[in-house]
Every structure is written in structure tokens, then in C-alpha cells.
Design brief:
This protein has 208 residues and is of the alpha/beta class. It has 2 domains: 75 residues, Winged helix-like DNA-binding domain superfamily/Winged helix DNA-binding domain (Arc Repressor Mutant, subunit A, Orthogonal Bundle); 113 residues, 3-Layer(aba) Sandwich (Rossmann fold), CATH 3.40.50.720. Helices cover 44% and strands 18% of the residues. The chain contains 9 helices and 9 strands. The strands form 2 sheets. A 7-stranded mixed beta sheet has the order 5-6-4-3-7-8-9, with helices on both faces. It has a two-stranded antiparallel sheet with strand order 1-2. α1 crosses α4. The radius of gyration is 20 Å and the shape is elongated.
């Protein structure tokens, strides 16, 4: 399978499939049909089958899907079968909230370091991880096999910080700063613009 041929729309639905299948698994459900999954997720059964066919199918006609098997297979597709070490840059309100988010560890994302430029925060413990000065970032990334950097800082600092991360050979950036980053193509960037999401919500209200 060539992952480059998979549409972004399909990839965007995979975490939702994973979440629903996890709930089914936790509830003791062993098997589910595309029709039943369709009713739960408000996605057509044909769309579900098409999405899964991009990765080889996973089900049998008239037999449905084995929930645990499908859950595990989607985890592999999403890369959740391996652990990812990450650092959080910015220990303000957003950075602290992210550091305290328990589901990171459940999904295999391990917070190894937290960095900030504010000396008043140095040594502050967030889930047993101490906030460090930005000056330590480059060495820490190199010494701790860090895959992902989370940017929870103002946009004015994000561009320069991203350049530093590129020089550290970071693999991916989860960007909460309201700015587009110019990084090499081999670095994966996921932008999370909270205000954009809120404006989409406002649009939905305005057009009800």
C-alpha cells in the first residue's frame, strides 16, 4: 500500500474510527457490521467500507468486523503501536493543560520535556516533568530521541523555535501557534488553530 495515495479526508477519519472502536472494545463488543458502525458514527456504511478498503478491507461480507483486530490494525496505520517521545515548548496555560492531558500516555505519546523562556517557571513540575530553560532544548532533543515538538507559544516566537527544531532533526511539529511554519518537507506539521475552529462554530450558528 502506498500511503501517499490515501486521501487526506480518509486519513482525517481514521482517529474517529479508532476512538469509536476503542469504546466498543471497552464495552466488550467483539464484532460489528459496517451498518451498525454507520449508525453510531453518522457516516454511511459504503463510506466506511471504502475507507477500510484503502488499507485492505479488514472485514468479511455477512460477518462484519472483528472490533479488537480492526482497532489494532488502525492503531498500526496511525503509528500508535510504537511510543513517541515529545517535548512541549511553552509552559503557559495551554502548555500546562497539554502536559496534564492523560490520554497522551494512553495513546503512546510520552512527554519527556517541557521548555519555557520564563525563569519563574523553571523547575515547576507538570506530571513529574520539570520545566527547563529554552537554552537546554537543543541538547535535550538530541539526547532523548525526541520525535515530536509541541509549540504552545506565541506566533512571534514560533518561527524561530521551529528553525531550531529543524536543526535538531525533529520529525514532527504539533503547532498551536497561529502562524504557518516554513519547514522542510520531511518534517510533518499539524497545525491546530483554535480560533479557526471557533469561527467555524460561529459560521454554523449563523447559518442554522
Amino acid at each position: 500500500m502506498d500511503n501517499r495515495a490515501i486521501s487526506q479526508a480518509v486519513i482525517a477519519r481514521l482517529p474517529r474510527y479508532y476512538r469509536y472502536l476503542g469504546d466498543l472494545k471497552d464495552s466488550g463488543i467483539e464484532r460489528i457490521s459496517s451498518q451498525d458502525l454507520s449508525k453510531m458514527m453518522k457516516v454511511t456504511a459504503s463510506q466506511i467500507r471504502q475507507d477500510f478498503n484503502n488499507f485492505g478491507g479488514f472485514g468479511q461480507q455477512g460477518y462484519g468486523y472483528n472490533v479488537e483486530y480492526l482497532y489494532d490494525e488502525i492503531a498500526k496505520i496511525l503509528g500508535l503501536n510504537v511510543r513517541h517521545n515529545l517535548v512541549i515548548i511553552g509552559a503557559g496555560n495551554l502548555g500546562q493543560a497539554l502536559a496534564n492531558y492523560m490520554n497522551f500516555e494512553r495513546r503512546g505519546f510520552i512527554v519527556r520535556g517541557i521548555f519555557d523562556k520564563n525563569p519563574a517557571l523553571y523547575g515547576k513540575q507538570l506530571r513529574k516533568v520539570s520545566v527547563q530553560p529554552m537554552e537546554n532544548l537543543r541538547r535535550f532533543v538530541a539526547d532523548n530521541d525526541i520525535d515530536i515538538a509541541v509549540l504552545a507559544i506565541p506566533k512571534e516566537a514560533a518561527v524561530q523555535t521551529a528553525e531550531t527544531l529543524v536543526s535538531c532533526n525533529i520529525k514532527a511539529i504539533w503547532n498551536f501557534a497561529h502562524v504557518d511554519l516554513n519547514v522542510p518537507d520531511n518534517i510533518v506539521v499539524e497545525n491546530v488553530h483554535l480560533s479557526d475552529s471557533l469561527m467555524r462554530l460561529s459560521y454554523g450558528i449563523a447559518n442554522m
